Amino acid sequence: IMNEPDKKIYAVNNIEVNPTVFIQRLTGRIICRSCGATYHKTINPPKIEGTWDRCGAQEFYQREDDKPETVENRIQITLEQSQPIIAFYSEKGLLHNVDGEIGIDKLFTEIQKIIE
Predict the structure, then answer these.
(1) 18 - beta bridge partners?
(2) What pLDDT digit, counting tens, does each position of 88-112 carry?
(3) Is the pTM of this model over 0.70?
(4) Kindly report the CA angle at 15 between 10 and 21, in degrees rounded to 5?
(5) Residues forming beta bridges with residue 61, ordered by sequence position
(6) 103 Rama class: left (phi>0) / alpha (psi -120 to 50) / beta
(7) Taking a C-beta distance cutoff of 8 angstroms, is the pair 64, 26 a contact?
């Protein structure tokens, strides 16, 4: 697509999150066995611990790809694979590093500013 004459990249956003924070975010997801509702242990827990808001069930599970060892491996691979891309766009002056720990609303505002 980028070889087409009318296509151009004006900005590349690199959302930075400390790997420890990222691991906590990704490994906290839990899913209700009964209704499939998704919660997060710390960010969006059920109103009553261990009881799902939607259906009242009390069993949950965690997907294999949300388990700490899997998440740590995925993050490591992503960091390694993204370094050449980050370096490439940084050299071109197109890279914008954005703090991914400032909250969703502020992050959205920061990215909007970059796009504008």
Answers:
(1) none
(2) 999 999 999 999 999 999 999 999 9
(3) yes
(4) 180
(5) 31
(6) left
(7) no
Q: Name every residue whose Cβ is closer than 8 Å to that of residue 83 and which is 6 or more positions away in sequence.
A: none
Find the distance separating the first CA and the last CA of the chain, reported in whole Å: 22
Contact 88, 12 (CB under 8 A): no
How far apart CA 20 and CA 25 sit, in angstroms, is 9
Tokens of residue 44, six digits = 């969006």
Residue in the block written with tokens 């991914």: 100
Helix (H) or strand (E) holding 24: helix 19-27
Are 14 and 86 in contact by the 8 Å Cβ rule? The answer is yes
Residue matched to tokens 């900005």: 11
